């Protein structure tokens, strides 16, 4: 007992000497290991299936069975400004309509054909992806100039958390709350300037119900997104699969025979 107490007393000054950046980097490293370490870093694709809800002014405006396919692109070099993933969101049991996000544009895909989505919607998707903590950990950690700065501790949703600012070389910051016990992200927040109204919007996402995907990767099965304090989107996954063959490369391309529709 005396030896344990002595070890704690000797370690205390070392812990106190940890700078805000050192602590922030440690928390991020612990999170990456909790997510699966190398298994997470080598994740090539992901398929999430569940129920998705959309809201406007806290009122439910849409409900659908959703399957979200994500595939990472290892050939992108400037990951700070270019997307290194493609995403296909299919809806309904038949998955006969949805949205396709490539690295350059987005399409609304139905039985009528493919219609390009407005540029501002793709821009919002791109920025939201680039500043997402899971995307940062999977794709962007190799970039020079990152600063991980601890902002202290707090209690969020009855959980003790470590708060860390993740700031890239362009001085864009995502603030993430990491569970002190599980080491996993609980909440993230960042501010985004609306290109039309110039309003400063706060984008907040909550992550809960983590489970092992079966491949050693931890992923939240419940995700809730909000903007300026109002809930706008929620998904409850019933299954999440990593490196599934269903997320093949051709899924993220428009079929050559599909009819291309004019923008609205």
Highlighted features:
alpha+beta; globular; 13-stranded antiparallel sheet; single chain; outer membrane lipoprotein receptor (LolB), chain A; 264 residues; 5 helices; 21% helix
Could you provide a short overview of the structure?
Helices cover 21% and strands 45% of the residues.
Structure report:
This protein is an alpha+beta fold. Helices cover 21% and strands 45% of the residues. It has a single domain (33-252), classed as Lipoprotein localisation LolA/LolB/LppX (outer membrane lipoprotein receptor (LolB), chain A), CATH 2.50.20.10. It is built from 5 helices and 13 strands. Strands 6-5-4-3-2-1-13-12-11-10-9-8-7 form a 13-stranded antiparallel beta sheet, covered by helices on one side. β5 and β6 (113-116) form a beta hairpin.
Corresponding CATH architecture:
Clam
Highest-level CATH class: Mainly Beta
Instruction: Note the overall shape.
Output: globular
Query: What does the main sheet amount to?
Result: 13 strands, antiparallel
Number of DSSP helices? 5
Structural class: alpha+beta
Overall pLDDT metric: 93
Q: Name the poorly predicted regions.
A: 4-12
The CATH topology is given as outer membrane lipoprotein receptor (LolB), chain A
Helix content: 10-25%
Number of strands: 13
CATH superfamily: Lipoprotein localisation LolA/LolB/LppX
Strand order, largest beta sheet = 6-5-4-3-2-1-13-12-11-10-9-8-7
Instruction: Determine the strand fraction and express it as a percent band.
Output: 35-45%
The span between the termini is 73 Å
Instruction: Please tell me the total number of domains.
Output: 1
Rg from Cα: 20 Å
Q: Write the element-wise H/E pattern from the N-terminal end onward.
A: HHHEEEEEEHHEEEEEEE
């Amino acid at each position: 007992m005396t030896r344990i107490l002595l070890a704690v007393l000797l370690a205390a000054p070392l812990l106190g000497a940890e700078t805000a950046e050192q602590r922030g980097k440690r928390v991020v490293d612990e999170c990456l290991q909790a997510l699966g370490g190398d298994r997470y870093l080598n994740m090539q694709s992901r398929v999430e299936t569940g129920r998705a809800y959309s809201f406007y002014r806290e009122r439910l405006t849409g409900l659908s069975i959703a399957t979200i396919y994500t595939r990472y692109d290892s050939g992108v070099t400037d990951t700070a400004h270019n997307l290194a993933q493609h995403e296909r969101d299919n809806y309904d049991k038949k998955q006969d309509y949805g949205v396709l996000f490539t690295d350059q544009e987005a399409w609304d895909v139905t039985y009528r054909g493919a219609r390009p989505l407005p540029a501002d919607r793709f821009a919002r998707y791109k920025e939201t992806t680039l500043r997402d903590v899971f995307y940062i950990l999977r794709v962007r950690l190799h970039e020079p100039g990152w600063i991980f700065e601890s902002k202290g501790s707090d209690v969020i949703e009855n959980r003790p958390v470590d708060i860390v600012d993740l700031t890239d070389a362009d001085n864009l910051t995502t603030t993430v709350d990491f569970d002190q016990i599980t080491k996993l992200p609980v909440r993230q927040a960042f501010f985004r300037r609306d290109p039309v109204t110039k309003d400063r919007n706060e984008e907040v996402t909550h992550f809960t119900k983590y489970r092992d995907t079966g491949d050693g990767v931890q992923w939240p099965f419940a995700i809730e997104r909000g903007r300026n304090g109002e809930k706008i989107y929620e998904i409850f996954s019933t299954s999440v699969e990593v490196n599934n063959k269903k997320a093949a490369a051709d899924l993220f391309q428009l079929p050559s025979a599909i009819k291309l529709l004019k923008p609205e």
